[in-house]
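Usage

Read records sequentially. Each one opens with the input sequence:
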Amino acid sequence: MDDRILHERCCRGDELAWEQLVSRYQARVCSVAYTYTGSEEEALDVAQEVFVRVWRRLDTCREPERLGAWLLQIARNACLDHLRRRKARPPAQDLPADELFTLADPGRRPDAGIDQEDQRHVLERAMQRLSPISREAILLKDIQELTLEDMATMLDLPIGTVKSRCSRARVELAKVVAGLIAPGPDAKAAR
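and closes with the structure output:
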């Protein structure tokens, strides 16, 4: 079922269509939320909030055939709201000192190649080190696979600006990943 029909059925109150909408987009929404929050628990909370917002605002979607882009825009806005609230209210409790540090794996050889799990961790760490603008560009274009036009609409920017942000973000990501994989002498001091 395409997004337009799914949207129409959801607006009429079809619960099965709503379940299908949530099922179709929940992984993408959680991925966006995780990229912004850096926490699985917070990402799930934000995702739940996103779907509540979507349910309440379904009738405001002007282009049902682009339901996914509209939904991701709501997810982005919910994440930004969440980050503003989190910044206004610091965590109620501090982390115990023993959770602040982790030791290197003694079984890992420095000359061993990077396996798929390591690649994922490197990418996650690299994404967290990107500037917010670059992180958002990589997330929307390369991870969520939005078109440049959808990104321009979502961010309220000219398409040329979106193209240059995506290009700069990829360069920044490559530099950060390279630094994480083969850190230089200054990398130890930065950790």
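Summary fields computed downstream for this record:
- DSSP finds nine helices and no strands in the chain.
- Residues 114-183 form a domain with the Arc Repressor Mutant, subunit A fold (CATH 1.10.10.10).
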